[in-house]
């Protein structure tokens, strides 16, 4: 074979290798998309199965908590009409006491744990602003 013929063959093979590389890349991308789709579908299925299996009465509800140390807390949780007093800290949860839940709802604290810092701060500002006005009006 002459040099020009062998060069043409090499150019033809190089183009074919590029096409083969692109086909492999496309197959790899398609396989990755399929795996991601399977993961999303499985997570949705598990969420639906776990959510439907539990009744509303079976979910624990936080009644109250207080900090007793830097990393330790005492927590009251209501589960199926029973209050559990739990000690939480150091990666452990210990049951301290168990008692039946009262019939009447517990009084709500001034600041619930659901309130974020911004809501508590705004409430404190409104409270302080109200006190400041009364002080100025007095002689």
UniProtKB/TrEMBL annotation:
Where primarily located?
A: membrane
Q: Where in the cell is it found?
A: Cell membrane; Bacterial flagellum basal body
InterPro entries attached to this UniProt entry = Flagellar_biosynth_FliO (IPR022781), FliO/MopB (IPR052205)
Membrane-crossing segments per the record? 29-46
Q: What keywords are assigned to this protein?
A: Bacterial flagellum, Cell membrane, Cell projection, Cilium, Flagellum, Membrane, Transmembrane, Transmembrane helix
Q: Which Pfam families match?
A: FliO
Supply the NCBIfam families for this chain.
FliO_TIGR
Similarity comment text for this entry: Belongs to the FliO/MopB family.
Name used for this protein in its record: Flagellar protein
What gene does the UniProt entry assign to this protein? fliO
